[in-house]
Write a structure and sequence with these properties.
The chain is an alpha+beta fold. It is about 30% helix and about 25% strand. It contains 15 helices and 21 strands. Strand 8 and strand 9 form a beta hairpin. The chain is globular and about 65 Å long. The two termini are about 25 Å apart. The mean pLDDT is about 95.
Length: about 450
């Protein structure tokens, strides 16, 4: 399939055709799911292209349309659901060389889609600003990949999720038409491509809001039992006067998987992994005392620059560390309804025990503090996994299924007609990341 398109691509493009490299760049972290592993492990592209300018992106898009070659956009490949796996072969468009930070203003930055999150922060912090929210793959993930495949992360306890109005200001998108165009989407129009897995436009540039860059202290607080830790997380989340970036709660035995933190994680204890502004540590310490917790680990923002970053043991990095010890483990993504008594969380914790180990991440939904769980599941078979999912849903929890690569079957559970209509407009041949958007597949 690669040969027809090669004759249409300029000689100066960075092309990768080595089968080993192409196979490597056709993967993400779908192997966290045994279900996805069986479905995706043999999917590879024919060719990888690394453009360094938007003009080169347009050239590749035009060549793919002319030859009806599928194109899948890739950032750093740190997603977990097969978002950037090429189901139909074709070209992978690796945007890692499109990585400039174009400008920074108070509270706002303009960046290329391939810019790494950590690299953006390194520049913006010099002016007192930082990204509002980042995934646990912060050091390697790109901003375009995060917008295309992510939903929130570290910082979401303050700023909510990426889909919330104001968390993405504008994007530039290259279309997949016979004559590709550049479109600028601003305001609510950005939702046409936000969290769409690159199925309906090639994002090349973004305007993203920034938050104040606080000096973040890293803290671990341990508790004798999980529910005390969970209630502490809720209380801290609702303590608006305490500036925080991360509230990550782990039931035992999850802390036992964190090898680099073992000195701070006593046997049998639940643990809260936290990022707190240094200016808020005094009231924070009072809250810890009131909650009956014990601080076992604390680093200043300066000290936190060395060694293992606490954030890299949270969100889905928790799953990564656990699987490094036991690769039979997989995970769920669960949103519990607003309930300060946390009754459903306690029920699930007691009901499943070690089969679905409880791991909570706190964030804001429409202003309210809510716990999302990324439980570690002891996988036996797909039927049992589906039973666990079904039980959660029957009890009133929402499962964002991480065991499907279909956009709508994961987090949304419904077709986004606006995104489907936009795809029809700018990708009429259905060449962008084919097979991932159910709304498009059912439209044909």
């Amino acid at each position: 399939m690669a040969s027809p398109i090669l004759s249409l691509l300029p000689n100066n493009l960075d092309l990768i055709q080595d089968p080993t490299q192409v196979a490597k760049l056709s993967k993400d972290y779908y192997h966290f799911s045994p279900v996805l592993t069986a479905q995706l492990e043999n999917k590879v592209a024919d060719l990888v292209v690394r453009p360094s300018t938007e003009a080169e992106v347009i050239q590749v898009a035009k060549a793919c349309v002319a030859t009806k070659t599928p194109l899948t956009v890739r950032g750093a490949g740190t997603g977990n659901y097969g978002q950037c796996i090429p189901l139909k072969g074709g070209v992978i468009l690796d945007l890692s060389k499109l990585n400039r930070v174009k400008w920074v203003k108070p509270g706002l930055a303009c960046v290329d889609a391939g810019a790494k999150l950590a690299a953006i922060d390194k520049i913006t912090r010099g002016q007192g600003w930082e990204l509002r929210m980042v995934p646990s793959t912060y050091r390697t993930a790109t901003i375009g990949g995060f917008i295309g495949g992510g939903s929130g992360g570290i910082g979401s306890i303050t700023y909510g999720q990426l889909a919330d109005r104001g968390n993405l200001h504008a994007v530039r998108v290259v279309t997949m038409e016979d004559e590709p165009r550049i479109l600028e989407l601003r305001g609510d129009e950005v939702q046409k491509v936000n969290h769409a897995y690159g199925t309906n436009g090639i994002i090349t540039e973004l305007e993203i809001p920034l938050g104040p860059a606080y000096p973040w202290a890293e803290v671990i607080v341990t508790f004798d039992n999980f529910m005390d830790a969970a209630r502490f997380g809720y209380t801290l989340g609702e303590a608006d006067g305490i500036i925080k970036k991360l509230i990550s709660i782990h039931a035992w035995p999850i802390p036992s998987y964190f090898a680099a933190l073992q000195d701070a994680l006593p046997e049998g204890k639940a643990a809260a992994l936290l990022m707190i502004s240094e200016s808020s540590l005094e009231p924070f310490n009072e809250l810890v005392k009131t909650a009956g917790g014990t601080i076992t680990y604390q680093k200043t923002a300066e000290e936190a620059k060395k060694g293992a970053a606490l954030a890299e043991f949270t969100w889905n990095h928790t799953t990564l560390h656990a699987r490094n010890v036991d690769d039979s483990l997989t995970y769920l993504q669960t949103l519990f309804p607003y309930d300060t008594n946390m009754k459903l969380i306690e029920h699930m914790y007691q009901h499943f025990g070690d089969e679905a180990m409880m791991h909570l991440e706190f964030f804001r939904v429409h202003g309210q503090v809510c716990p999302a769980a990324l439980q570690l599941v002891r996988y036996t078979n797909e039927a049992r996994l589906n039973e666990i999912i079904r039980y959660h849903e029957e009890q009133g929890a929402f499962i964002a299924n991480p065991h499907t690569y279909i956009l709508e079957d994961g987090g949304r559970k419904q077709i986004n007609e606006t995104q489907v209509a936009f795809k029809a407009q700018i990708d009429p041949y259905g060449l962008l990341n084919p097979g991932k958007m159910r709304g498009w597949l059912e439209r044909l």
